[in-house]
Specification:
The protein has 216 residues and is an all-alpha fold. It has 2 domains: 60 residues, Arc Repressor Mutant, subunit A (Orthogonal Bundle), CATH 1.10.10; 142 residues, Tetracycline Repressor, domain 2 (Orthogonal Bundle). The protein is built from 10 helices and no strands. The chain is globular and about 60 Å long. About 3% of the residues have low confidence.
Length: 216
């Protein structure tokens, strides 16, 4: 990877048509990167999936690296837009935490390939997106940690380590995307259904909220 990783957003002027084309390219690229990883994915595969030439693809994203970085940026932006405990609907801890878990599972359900691309990047050390992730992610997480600590100080929940609470929620919800095949095999299903995600939300919420000593 080169200095391009610092230039995640294209500097070319955006138009409505260009933005639509880029959205389509990013969507198909996400699927290819999820399936083959960065090293295994080929621009020719992505161009074929979008039904354009490789030359045309390079007009929008001049290198595979720039395309990959924009895919990662989109994933992080989508997640951070929804995954903020502080901004969840509700005023009490139980409601906010349950809605947070529901939203996290919804992202796993609707964006499974995004989750796999992100997981693979993190497993490999976040060398390409680490700075951007730190910039966007740290402030959001610290806000949520502060909220948990406020609830603890107000006696609304047991004294726990907020960071490990979030680690556990992320792991238990993202597994429905990253390891969906394993869950399908266990449940003897070809595909996870809405009821599976609903059941997961109820179970994870109950375990987490009860484990935190929160009264409902």
């Amino acid at each position: 990877m080169s200095e391009e990783k610092k230039k995640i957003v294209s500097s070319k002027p955006q138009t409505r048509i260009r933005a639509a084309h880029e959205k389509t390219i990013l969507s198909e690229a996400e699927i290819i990167f999820a399936q083959y990883g960065y090293a295994g994915a080929k621009l020719s595969q992505i161009a074929k999936a979008v039904n354009i030439s490789k030359t045309n693809l390079l007009y929008y994203f001049p290198t595979k690296e720039s395309l990959y970085l924009n895919v990662l940026k989109n994933i992080i932006d989508i997640w951070l837009e929804k995954l903020t405990l502080f901004n969840q609907v509700g005023s009490d801890p139980a409601t906010k935490i349950k809605n947070y878990i529901i939203d996290k599972l919804e992202l796993s359900q609707k964006h499974p390939n995004a989750s796999k691309v992100f997981a693979n990047e993190i497993i490999n050390g976040a060398t390409n997106i680490g700075d951007y992730l730190q910039e966007r992610f740290s402030t959001t997480l610290e806000e949520d940690v502060k909220l948990i600590n406020t609830w603890i100080n107000e006696g609304k929940m047991d004294a726990i380590d907020p960071y490990h609470l979030f680690f556990m929620i992320w792991a238990s919800t993202q597994t429905y995307a990253d390891f969906s095949v394993q869950i399908q095999l266990a449940l003897k299903k070809d595909k996870l259904e809405q009821c599976d995600f609903d059941n997961a939300a109820e179970f994870i919420s109950k375990v987490v909220i009860k484990g935190l000593g929160i009264s409902q």
